[in-house]
Amino acid sequence: MERGITRRGLLSTTVLAGAGAIAAASAARSARALSLQPMDAQSRSLYLAACSSRDGAYHRELVAEARKELAGRASDAQIEAAIVRMTCPICGCPITTF
Ligand SMILES: [Zn+2]
């Protein structure tokens, strides 16, 4: 009786350890897939000044750039549709978020 419980206890501990090892391994794999880079001063100031603030000057700039880039190459509706689908390279939000 006591042996059975011990064996079951050992088994569940082993299963948990195995699950933990798998979780740790996949965490390590996804950590390797990411590359962290320090923000340079320009990115940092853009991030803080534009993307994390409510006025969204950088997003407006991106919208203006996209309009200029696409002008004459697509209809107004197509340009607007493209702009709506674009996301900010810094914060990942739609560039129409001001
Ligand atoms: Zn942004």
Strand-helix topology:
Elements: H1 2-33, H2 41-51, H3 57-70, H4 76-85
Bound molecules: zinc ion.
Task: Please give a handful of descriptors for the protein shown.
98 residues; mainly alpha; 2 domains; 4 helices; elongated; binds zinc ion
Write a brief caption for the model.
By secondary structure, the chain is mainly α.
Q: What structural class results from the helix and strand content?
A: mainly alpha
What is the H-and-E element order? HHHH
Heteromolecules bound? zinc ion
Distance between the termini: 68 Å
Overall mean pLDDT score?
A: 75
Total count of helical runs of at least 4 residues: 4
- Stretches with pLDDT under 50, minimum 5 residues: none
**How many domains in all?**
2
Q: What proportion strand?
A: under 5%
Largest sheet: none
Principal-axes geometry comes out as elongated
Helix content: 55-70%
Radius of gyration, in Å, reads 25 Å
Structure notes:
The chain is mostly helical and 98 residues long. The chain folds into two domains: 1-34; 45-85. 68% of the residues lie in helices and 0% in strands. It is built from four helices and no strands. It has helices at residues 2-33, 41-51, 57-70, 76-85. The radius of gyration is 25 Å and the shape is elongated. The N and C termini lie far apart (68 Å). 7% of the residues are buried. The mean pLDDT is 75. The protein binds zinc ion.
